[in-house]
Specification:
CATH class: Alpha Beta
Strand content: 15-25%
Distance between the termini: 32 Å
Structural class: alpha/beta
CATH superfamily: Aldolase class I
Helix content: 25-40%
Oligomer: single chain
Radius of gyration: 19 Å
Number of strands: 12
CATH architecture: Alpha-Beta Barrel
Order of helices and strands: HEEHEEEEHEHEHEHEHEE
Number of domains: 1
Number of helices: 7
Length: 276
């Protein structure tokens, strides 16, 4: 996809600002304002790789550690809504704050290198760490936060977490994000949607079309709250048509969640059919 000509000057100025350093990269303290409401439209979930400010998107979901304040400012200058991805329910040994997590809250591996489930019941330990992460997102200028791995109740974490544990944890995440002036999304955890849709501003869900689960996001859609879907396999045209029919925003991505994702356009592509 390419930008319309009218958008190119602003986009190119934003790229130049990042490249030349004219956008200050330092964290910016700002008064806490009401969270900016999430937007509808094409989107990308990207946790690694170069960020293309000029890609024709409305919303981008980027890694909170790897994304600078300068990049966030450039994306805002190009009229993008920018979400800060953080890991909330699992430990990652490559994060800048990894040493703050004591052994007592680290559980079983969660299937990704260097990652372990966290004992989310221990908010006495986790709350200061996770609030600091969200505060950094706010200071970098992000509009919202996307806390990942909040569905420990559905996995073998080593702690026997319950849905009630996850509800308490996610409600704390929502309150804290809103208190910092950030909108907040519910990541997966479809069993919790009926309880949490009133508290969260949007939903981010993986593979709901693959597993025929997208209808479970109805409580968000009924409240006119955006639903952003990531799929990792399937026909691009077919998935985009299904997403448009349901009223959700989809990107077809690689598991690496790099810059190779293919967001569905505002209007779905035509699905070709063979003549009988």
């Amino acid at each position: 996809m390419s930008l319309p000509r009218s958008a190119l000057p602003v986009c190119l100025l934003a790229v130049a600002a990042v490249a030349t350093g004219t956008v200050a990269p330092q964290l910016v303290a700002r008064p806490v304002a009401p969270p900016r409401e999430p937007v509808e439209g094409p989107w990308q979930l990207q946790v690694q790789g170069k960020v293309d400010v000029c890609f024709l998107l409305i919303l981008v979901d980027l890694d909170g550690d790897a994304t600078s304040a300068a990049t966030v400012r450039a994306l805002h200058d190009a009229s993008r809504y920018v979400i800060c991805y953080i890991d909330a329910g699992s430990y990652e040994n490559f994060r800048v704050d990894h040493a703050r997590f004591p052994r007592s809250v680290k559980g079983r591996p969660n299937g990704w290198p260097g990652e372990r489930w966290l004992d989310i019941r221990r908010l006495d330990i986790l709350a200061p760490i996770l609030k600091a992460r969200m505060r950094t997102c706010a200071r970098k200028g992000f509009d919202a936060v996307d806390p990942d791995n909040v569905d420990g109740y559905a996995n073998k974490t080593g702690f026997g977490l319950s849905r009630a544990d996850s509800l308490r944890f996610t409600r704390w995440l929502a309150r804290t994000a809103h208190g910092l002036g950030l909108s907040v999304g519910l990541k997966n955890a479809l069993e919790l949607v009926p309880s949490l849709a009133p508290r969260f501003d949007f939903a981010v869900v993986e593979q709901c079309f693959q597993y025929d689960e997208c209808e479970r996001l109805a409580p968000f859609l009924q409240r006119s709250k955006p639903v952003y879907v990531v799929e990792y396999e399937g026909s691009y045209a077919t998935l985009c048509a299904k997403a448009a029919a349901l009223g959700v925003h989809l990107t077809l991505a690689q598991l690496a969640l790099d810059d190779s994702g293919e967001p569905c356009p505002a209007r779905p592509p035509t699905v070709s059919s063979q003549a009988p």
